[in-house]
Design brief:
single chain; about 375 residues; mainly alpha; 16 helices
Length: about 375
């Protein structure tokens, strides 16, 4: 058990996790998930928001089992290795709004860091601009970290608090099983289901859930984090997490090429647009929000599985942010940025800068 516990902390361990995700994500696309969206934490949380009625964008409504699996897989790993440690209290309201604006930025770009990597591995040239924006946003965040930025310390709490988000995910799975999609209908008694568009494209539930559980388990062990990879390289020139992120991209490229899913170009890419400035700015906002919150969307899910209540608040903020984005015309589409997406990104950047400047420890 001790040897298994330490294997993913090694350099080859994080590289192995990157390879695993790089294989599984394109395979999920091949088995039914949307193009260049085998796994996208932001997009999948948006679909969940639509499925439970937080927004009415009919093309993006489906409870994504991968998200459920991420949380529950991480929870299983945390229990097996005695790392389930319920904790909270580190500026939860700030984390909530960071989650909201992280989602707004992601839906202007149309993807989280995971999907940006997978879009690039599928040949989508617009992902390059998004990844540059992500790096820029994280770099700004590291300047705040160097200047003493902190959301404060978490405190140990009751086990019941640590169970809240995992139980929420179990509840979503139960709802999905009790209220499945009715053929030819976009809504049953409780849940909304997309009849067309990305929300209607998905692998079989058991496959999606199984992949999510596996990734959640190994990511919890390795501390896999796309934002953390960039942050650690900028701050410490550490390649540990970055090696896993780069291997994800390289492996996904190879698998996409083998499966015939590699289609290079800028125009006409699936669920993407060519308004490059706002691709960059949207991911700058997301990257800054992730850095200020201490983790990318995937990492926040994995932390939630460990009992981190503050990470769970960030996750809920992203789900609410998805509803806000689609209800108020902020989210992009293949036609371009939504009617109010540009001012939303500017407001989000100003809010994140305000948080970064004001939440710093005073040095005597």
């Amino acid at each position: 058990m001790k040897g298994i516990k330490n294997i993913f902390a090694e350099s080859w361990g994080i590289i192995g996790v990157g390879i695993l995700i790089g294989i599984l994500a394109p395979l999920l696309q091949y088995l039914g998930n949307p193009p260049n969206m085998g796994i996208c934490v932001a997009c999948f949380e948006r679909d969940i928001a639509g499925a439970i009625g937080f927004h009415r964008a009919a093309v993006v409504q489906y409870i994504r089992p991968e998200i459920i699996g991420f949380v529950l897989g991480s929870m299983i790993a945390a229990f097996v290795f005695k790392e389930f440690k319920p904790r909270l209290g580190s500026a939860p309201i700030v984390r909530f709004f960071l989650g909201v604006f992280a989602m707004i930025g992601a839906l202007v770009f149309l993807g989280c860091p995971w999907r940006a990597a997978l879009r690039l591995a599928g040949g989508d040239g617009t992902a390059i601009v998004g990844l540059l924006g992500l790096v820029f946003g994280v770099w700004i965040g590291t300047l705040f970290l160097k200047g003493g930025y902190s959301l404060g310390r978490t405190q140990p709490t009751h086990h019941s608090a640590g169970w809240m988000l995992p139980l929420f995910m179990v509840g979503l799975l139960v709802l999905m099983l009790i209220f499945p999609q009715i053929p030819g209908k976009d809504k049953n008694e409780i849940l909304f289901y997309s009849m067309k568009g990305p929300g209607s494209q998905h692998a079989y539930l058991a496959i999606s859930l199984g992949v999510g559980l596996l990734i959640g388990f190994v990511a919890q062990r390795s501390r896999f984090c796309t934002m953390g990879a960039i942050r650690d390289f900028v701050l410490f020139r550490s390649m540990h997490l970055l090696s896993g992120f780069l291997m994800l991209i390289l492996t996904a490229f190879v698998v996409n090429f083998i499966l015939g899913q590699f289609k290079p170009g800028f125009a006409g890419q699936p669920v993407a647009h060519t308004m490059h400035l706002w691709n960059f700015a949207g991911m700058t906002l997301s990257g800054l929000a992730y850095c200020l919150a201490g983790g990318c969307p995937g990492r926040q899910l994995f932390l939630s599985g460990e009992g981190d209540g503050d990470a769970a608040v960030f996750v809920l903020g992203m789900i609410v942010g998805a509803g806000i984005s689609h209800n108020f015309g902020l989210a992009s589409s293949p036609a371009g940025v939504g009617p109010y997406g540009i001012p939303a990104v500017i407001i989000g950047l100003l809010v994140c800068l305000f948080i970064g400047f004001t939440m710093r420890k005073r040095i005597a």
